[in-house]
Write a structure and sequence with these properties.
Strand content: under 5%
Shape: extended
Order of helices and strands: HHHHHHHHHHHH
Distance between the termini: 46 Å
Helix content: 55-70%
Largest sheet: none
Number of strands: 0
Radius of gyration: 25 Å
Length: 278
Amino acid sequence: MQAFGRFLDVLDALRANCPWDKKQTNESLRPNTIEETYELCDALIKNDIPDICKELGDVLLHICFYAKIAEEKSQFDMADVCNALTRKMITRHPHVYHPSQIDAEDPKPLPYVPENGADVEVTKVNTVGQVLENWEQIKLKEKDGNKTVLSGVPDALPSLIKAYRIQDKARNVGFDWEDRQDVWKKVHEELAELEVELNKEDKERSTEELGDFLFSVINAARLYKLNPDNALEKTNRKFIDRFNYIEEHSIKIGKPLKDMTLGEMDALWNEAKKVLES
């Protein structure tokens, strides 16, 4: 708490005395916030612990900066942000905080206070899936919560992540495959439809069918508890490493990539796989 308070004091001082910090607005900070979030995600996938710590700080700075701007306009402050978040977390975890779940001899440290009157009937939960199902149902009951199941998916999410979140939210209200193996019939069906349109050279229909095929593959990944965004990013990095190996070799032998045959590059690609994965 002392460290957090010291950080907020520094932010206050910068906002008052630094020309750059003085002029920042929600609009001017937004692009940097997106960049900082991606940098944190990059550190997370690399499991770079010192960098994760640093990038978490950068993201925290932006969170507090937005609260500081709002405080100056008498809209809300950082305490309001924390209190609203605490109320929401307590309300959406009735299996932990609801009075019916609290052992009189071992009471929970915080009281159960329904968020905007969104009290719920509580049943015992034993799995992550049950927790997520309750979470979605509670959000729909909150006065200012999601109006529909899928309204909580931000429009600005990258398409791959958005597809995963759409499917996951639908699953939480029971709209999902009964047997995950059944998804493969859909994947093969969508691939066949894509091939038909590609052979017709119909770009508009091919684009639509490509989207359907990708959506079905993401669905399969979700059902098998694989994160498609993480998987694709690992493949991206693997491709970059192998291609860089080819390019470095071309520089060593003084032969530009554009002058290499596909066979030469393919041989180096296979060599890179052995060297980099050994």
